[in-house]
Amino acid sequence: MISRRRLGLRARVTLIYALGALLLSSTVAASSFLLTQRRLLSETEITAKSQFYRNTRDLRRGLQVAEIPDERDDVFAIEAENSTTPTTTPSTTTPPTTARIFRTIPPSQPVDVPGIDNQVAPPPPTVPNSRPVTSRLGDNFGSVPAPLGENPVIDVPPTPQDPISIILNGLLRPNGAAALLVLPPEEGIDLAARPFSLSGLQPTAIPADLRALVESGSVASRRFNSTGGEPQLAIGITVPEYDADYYELVPLSDLQGTLNSLRNILFGVAIAASVGGATLGYYSAYRAVQPLNRVSAAAQAISDGDFDTRLDDQIDPDLSKLTSSFNHMVEALQVRIERDEQFASDVSHELRSPLMTLTASVGVLEGRRGDLPAPAQQAVDLLSQDLRRFQRLVEDLLEISRMDVGAVQLDQSPVYVREFLRFVIAQSSAAGINVTCSTADADLMINVDKRRMAQAITNLIDNANKYAGGVTAISFRRNGDRVHLFVDDEGPGVRPADRIRIFDRFTRAGADAGRRDIAKGVGLGLSLVKEHVRMHDGTVWVGDRPDGRMGAHFVIDMPIDDTDMGDEEMAT
Amino acid sequence: MGSISGTICGVGTRILTVEDDDRIRQAVKLALEDEGWSVDEADTGERALEAFAAQVSDVVLIDIMLPGMDGFEVCRSIRRTSDVPIIMVTARDDTHDVVAGLEAGADDYLTKPFAPKELSARIRALLRRARSSESGGLDRIKVGDLEISPDEGLVLKAGEELHLTKTEFKLLVELASQPGKVFSREVLLERVWGYDYFGDGRLVDVHVRRLRTKVETDPANPRYVVTSRGLGYKLQP
Hints:
heterodimer, A: alpha+beta, six-stranded mixed beta sheet, five-stranded mixed beta sheet, B: 237 residues, 9 helices
């Protein structure tokens, strides 16, 4: 069955609704997430950048302040004197330089880096708004700066002593940003850039391409994930006056947290929407299928024989087409069945009326048989025999036509199988045959339409009489919730090729083509057996006798159907 | 059976045959008269009622398909005034006709074509039933507010006499012979109608239904004649 492999309508609609809701809600969720993310990120970036520019400005100002006034310089120098050993004396003729600032910083490493200071310096890059200081610094910058990271990073302490650290420390970093100031190498002090770090920012933490951009003189920012997977925003700028690079690294993890919870919420909403969609789908499919259930119930009622069943026209305007065509169909069907029934009934009446006259008249003749001369007696015998046969034929034809019309209803009642078979045999031409069964099955009861089942068995007995010299054994056996009735003979048996065909109408076992043995009756008997058994939800077939002897072995297989059979004491 | 049929089969037992087909009517009359019954004929329902009024019959044989007033109507009309045994004759053995005929008040039915011997057997069984109530010899039976006197052919409900047909009465007496015991349809068919194993159970069902409309206060919820599902009927003591 195809329908068994496919999903039911309700399941399909539910699934489609669920998938639709999932698709819709996840699209909405994803786009709102992305929009929010972009907006939050850009806001954060704008904030971070403006703070960065403010910091850059403050830094620049701080650096200026730190280097210009001598007094301040002195202050720095004095402050720094305790811990530092100045190696050069600042010239009074030259303007103060960053060198003075740097000088206040404790040298952290051996400063001599052979092979670097003697390099031929390319012409210093022209820096706009250049000041003498810058050019001086620029000279120093001629040397190739040592790659960042090779120089030890100077961590700015919480209570800094040196001016640069103080400046850096004074910067506002509302986002918990880390900062890094990379100063150029100072002649005589340092041959490599010396990074000052706030909050432990390592130069290596700055992406290389960003550094390259910044070192080439641009302002650059970039969002990236740290090696620990933390999202970060790196911003860098060159401070041209001092040839320094200033970086800030703003952690975006707070933002990420917000985004994560947003994502979780949206995910939950999407799931809830899918479940909601599924529920809605199930409900609407259920509602949509509801009228179909009514149609199906009506169809069931009709097939059970209640042809007056109609669907209520007003159940649903959308379904009125279905309803009205269904009702029309039933009406047409009903008209047709009634016409067929009427025809069968008329035929029945027309055939039976003359038969009635014949039967009554022949009955009188039979009663007066003794008064008749011998030839007339013979004639009466022939007449009554063929009248009976003709009557049987008419009955069979009428029975078959009623079955074809579908106008037959079983009148079932519980019977003891053994007793039933005995009665059938007693009335048949096989009187004297015993019914055999196992002791366990002796009291087996089944629900049958006695008249029809009796006719089926009688027909099997008659069939054996006509073609096989009579029935030799009739037995039955319970087989689970079914019963098998067996009718055996010792005739020539039925050829395998004919075993289906003999149950067709007007087919006769052993009949040669072109030769009809009318005296043995026409072949409606077995087709009636088949029809009667089929109406009892059973099947009939013929095979070889199980004991291997010659003869046919007819089997009726039918359900026991022991509903309606109680255990109350029965009158006998 | 011989002695009974001898008394029943006497000349003077009048049978009214209602049949519109002349040839059938003639043949049936011939056959019945040959069996020893006296036969009156009618070819329409109206004439049948006239004939029945003029000369009371012992058994009425009614064909269902009659021009004008149909067999059911004739049956109902007769039943209004008489409990005479009625046999319905049908040429169509569909359930509807059989049940409708029985519900109209018929005691039994036959399907055309039937042998004269079969008809005689049915008539005898009906007459036996009609007379057995006069010579039963059973004691008076009391069940609830029902009082059954088989000898007098009387049923009293709360002191009031109920009008049952012979068949209904016989059915009630059978059930009342062993109150509380379930009688299968086969047993009732045999004892009341004289049918063998293959009698039509619908006879019992329809008669039980009709009996209930008379003896029960609420026929839809019977108190006396109770169905034992799938088994048969019993009289609830």
